[in-house]
Write a structure and sequence with these properties.
By secondary structure, the chain is of the alpha+beta class. The chain contains seven helices and 30 strands. The relative contact order is 0.09.
Length: 526
């Protein structure tokens, strides 16, 4: 049965003419031989069709299957797929033509070419080649040459005063007013309403805006005088600018070059305001003395770049200097020489700022990459000093950390994660809890000095910080996170990254990346 079925399939797949010829060959020899079927033949009569009568010995299923195969073969033959495929191949071959190269246009004999500069061809108007000028090697001058060690005279870079009479008069004035600024009156905190009202009286004008330094301002200090307004600004170029707003309303400020690299820290001495101490990345700490007109060299360490310093003693005799490599130097100004007394190794990879506690001066706070540590100066050692308290709430690099100016019960930090944080440091023997987190844009970019939030010495529960918001402003916040006041003005058109408040008067000075000082003064100060 299987042999007959396979032959039938091959027969049905052939054209009808060939199928009829083959069907005669498959006729059974003995027609009288009975064939037994297990299925009713009545159903097979319905499936009978021409060409299948010769296979009466097949089952109805086989007959039905062969019928379907034959009908499918006829259908595909009617489609003429082989002829259509042959026609398509011929059409594709006709469309494919050999690529023809682009013919270049022939140049005309009398065509005029493009005009060329005779100067660039190095020929004169007559067409004669010019002689080649010998190249001279350019001498590369150092932008900030290293300064010699030792004391430097206070010689302003921007004043053409051959006799120095103007400078001597100014230095004498500043030295005399410093004698009357030693005592500081202790007053209680004002109410926020009263404090805000006094801040609203501070204004800025064209007369209180001046370009003081050549490069970006990296540090600012205000003289504590009650009579005059003297602002000092340290620059990225190593300059220090002194601007007396009372005396030099029309004159330019004095600009000095005591350092060869950025001035990162600048303070007037708390015991003698006639001394202006400056710290630079060039590894030196100098003291500008108004009475002697000399920048004395207090400390020198060219092997480790310093970053910040603060006065460890109230009389400013000893200093604590932080370095970028994580070391701390103890410097005694009473000791001859410019070396350190002791060198300590902190547990921080880098130190950005150092600030001593205003009451318990053995404690100081340091800001590193992502940690804030509080140390006890009595327990420092040369191997690896362990901090009393470690604050790890910051997620990115920290720009600064400062104790509150009167009691030291608060610490404010500025972090690159766009947050200002206030911690409770009333008990430095245990962990300092986080009190307030303020959302504030601190992303200054590459060309602006990083923000540093600093406390107002007159109002211990409030601090000031620069802002990236428009219009440009300097903002004042309360320790609870509430905004107290924003300094605005038509003359404030750039970002003041660093700001400082006068310890007793309502005067604010801010510096920007172009070397300009912006001073907000209370109307009574004019």
């Amino acid at each position: 049965m299987k042999t007959v079925s396979s032959k039938a399939e091959s027969l049905l797949l052939k054209p009808p003419s060939e199928a009829c010829t083959e069907s005669t060959k498959l006729e059974p020899k003995n027609t009288a031989e009975p064939v037994t079927l297990s299925v009713n033949m009545a159903s097979s009569d319905e499936d009978s069709s021409p060409g299948l009568d010769d296979f009466s010995g097949l089952s109805p299923y086989e007959r039905k299957r062969l019928k379907n195969i034959r009908e499918n073969a006829k259908f595909f033959a009617s489609l003429q797929l082989s002829e259509s495929a042959a026609r398509l191949r011929g059409m594709i071959k006709k469309r494919q033509q050999p690529e023809s190269k682009r013919k270049r246009p022939k140049k005309k004999e009398n065509e005029i070419g493009c005009r060329r500069s005779m100067r660039l061809l190095k020929v004169d108007p007559l067409g004669v080649p010019l002689p080649v000028a010998p190249t001279q090697p350019e001498l590369e001058e150092e932008e900030n040459p290293l300064l010699p060690p030792g004391p430097l005279e206070m010689i302003p870079e921007n004043q053409d005063d051959s006799n120095g009479l103007l400078l001597k008069a100014s230095l004498k004035t500043w030295a005399e007013m410093s004698k009357t600024s030693n005592e500081r009156t202790e007053e209680g905190l004002s109410s926020i309403k009263s404090y805000k009202a006094k801040l609203s009286g501070m204004v800025i004008s064209e007369a209180t805006v001046c370009k003081v330094t050549k490069g970006a301002i990296t540090s600012v200090a205000l003289h504590p005088s009650e009579e005059r307004t003297l602002v000092a600004a340290g620059a990225k170029s190593g300059q220090i600018g002194l601007w007396d707003l009372t005396q030099q309303r029309e004159d330019e400020p004095y600009v000095f070059y005591p350092h060869s690299q950025p001035v990162s820290c600048l303070y007037f001495s708390p015991s003698n305001p006639a001394h202006l101490l400056s710290l630079s990345y060039d590894g030196t700490l100098r003291c500008g003395d108004f009475s002697t007109a000399i920048f004395e060299e207090v400390y020198r360490n060219e092997g480790s770049s310093p970053s910040s310093f603060d006065f460890l003693a109230e009389d400013a005799s000893t200093l604590l200097v932080g370095h970028w490599d994580g070391h701390l130097s103890l410097v005694d100004r009473r000791t001859p020489g410019t070396s350190y007394e002791k060198l300590f190794n902190s547990s921080m990879g880098k130190i950005r700022t150092v600030h001593v506690h205003p009451v318990s001066r053995q404690y100081f706070v340091t800001a590193g990459l992502r940690d804030v540590h509080i140390y006890d100066a009595r327990h420092l050692n040369s191997r690896r000093s362990q901090p009393l308290i470690s604050v790890t709430e910051h997620t990115k690099s920290i720009a600064s950390a400062y104790f509150s100016p009167v009691t030291g019960n608060r610490v404010v930090t500025t972090c690159a994660d766009c947050k200002l944080r206030v911690f409770d440091s009333s008990s430095v023997s245990s962990q300092i809890p986080l009190l307030t987190t303020i959302r504030h844009n601190t992303i200054t970019g590459r060309w602006l000095t990083r923000f540093q939030a600093v406390w107002d010495p007159k109002q211990e529960d409030c601090f000031i910080v620069g802002s990236m918001a428009q219009p440009r402003r300097v903002e004042v916040f309360h320790e609870t996170g509430k905004s107290v006041y924003s300094f605005l003005g038509e003359c404030l058109v750039s970002v003041c990254s660093l700001s400082v408040m006068h310890p007793t008067r309502y005067v604010l000075a801010g510096g920007n990346s172009s070397g300009r000082l912006h001073v907000f003064m209370h109307q009574e100060s004019f």
